[in-house]
Amino acid sequence: MRFLTAGESHGPQLTIIIEGFPAGLEVKADAINEELRRRQGGYGRGRRMKIEKDTVQIVGGIRHGYTTGAPIALVIENKDWRNWTEIMGPDPIEDPSSVKKRVSRPRPGHADLNGAIKYGHRDMRDVLERSSARETAARVAVGTIAKLYLKAIGIEIAGRVVEICGAKDTSPLPESIEVIREKTEASEVRCLDQKAEEEMKKVIDEAKANGDSVGGVVETIVAGAPVGLGSHVHYDRKLDAKIAMAVMSINAFKGVEFGAGFEMASLPGSQVHDEIQWAEGQGYSRKTNRLGGFEGGMTTGMPIIVRGVMKPIPTLYKPLQSVDIQSKEPFSASIERTDNCAVPAASVVCEHMVAWELALAVKEKFGGDRMEEVIQAVKLHRERSVAF
Q1: What's the domain count of the chain?
Q2: Residue 213 annotated in ligand binding
Q3: Which positions bind FMN (predicted)?
Q4: Is 315 annotated as a binding residue?
Q5: C-beta separation of 74 from 31 below 8 A
Q6: Which residue of 28, 50, 92, 212 has the fewest C-beta atoms within 10 A of its own C-beta?
Q7: How far apart are CA 184 and CA 344, in angstroms?
Q8: pLDDT at 32 (0 to 100)
Q9: What domain range includes position 152?
Q10: Is 39 annotated as a binding residue?
Q11: 45 marked as part of a ligand binding site
Q12: Mean pLDDT value across residues 267-289
């Protein structure tokens, strides 16, 4: 199972091809559109989120609301494309230096300079258009189908924001995924605690007033994952490692942890490892979940808890210093976008990247060309796990 995306931030569309989902999975455009709407929301977003309301077109692999087993093709149109046709068009031009909005000034914290050196671009728009977080809309579309696939076998996913620039939500997690969803969807910053929400909004407002930006920490919670997804036998089959890679691949993410995470460095083993218990009819479980649902690269059956650290958006109204690649003269970096906090949106993206990696692990373990085969295989595995 795999996916591929193509398209630029100001190009005509994002194009997605997904291969490997079994036949018979119910997928409706409305479900994808709702998740795309969630990605565009959140306190601290800029004007572009108001210009465009992302919607998906299903152009292959889904017929009458169900997957056929063929590759799935999706398109997310850029409704602002008409204003960028001259700048971003594919047709040859006589004088590349005459193109408007050429970029020769790399922005600190972006891919501009590294990509320009790597690919030999003198106009760094060829880098920044693809490296833009706009591409995460495609990942959310893919992750939505992964979520539907997982839900069909009893795996549910939710996300929240736990910190924005020092303002923290220390609320304990509700046991129900549905409660987490209800509370975070009612919050402009996707946190659980109303007091924490006000503190987070305050630091976002203060940063905006100062021409600055803020980052934070997001958390994805997965309930219902069966025991034994992933494997201990090779480094590249450990599921927590795969999830860590997927989370780190999200634009601006610079750290990942599971369960108690980096706090474990300051704790003795007796306060880290999860004691095992057994109950008739329920099988094995852990008394605590400090390891975040993983041992040896495999799921334990406990909820998966994974957090990602997002750095502050590097484009500021209080611009940082850089050097023009043409003149080599110093300058103050230009502004390409206006968000000063995208942490709530990043929480949504994180949910969907975790969902994708879990879907891969489910497909690897249980196979199946039809959804009923997958559902039956997972059901049998759960029964065997309880009886073990």
Answers
A1: 1
A2: no
A3: 130-132, 251-252, 296, 311-315, 337
A4: yes
A5: no
A6: 92
A7: 10
A8: 98
A9: 2-387
A10: yes
A11: yes
A12: 96
314 is in an annotated binding site: yes
Instruction: Give the integer Cα–Cα distance in Å for 82 and 216.
Output: 35
Q: State yes or no: 176 annotated in a binding site.
A: no
**Is residue 20 part of an annotated ligand binding site?**
no
63 is in an annotated binding site: no
CATH number (domain holding residue 315): 3.60.150.10
Residue 48 has pLDDT above 80, yes or no: no
How many angstroms separate the CA atoms of 265 and 273, rounded?
Answer: 13
Q: pLDDT tens digit string along 306-342?
A: 999 999 988 777 778 999 999 999 988 656 556 789 9
According to the annotation, is 130 in a ligand binding site? yes
Residue 174 is labelled as binding a ligand: no
Task: Work out the angle at residue 241's Cα, subtended by the Cα atoms of residues 236 and 245, and round it to the nearest 5 degrees.
Answer: 100
Q: Dihedral angle at the C-alpha atoms of 138, 57, 15, 105, nearest 10 degrees?
A: -70
106: annotated binding-site residue? no
Look up residue 184 and give its amino acid.
T
pLDDT value of residue 191? 97
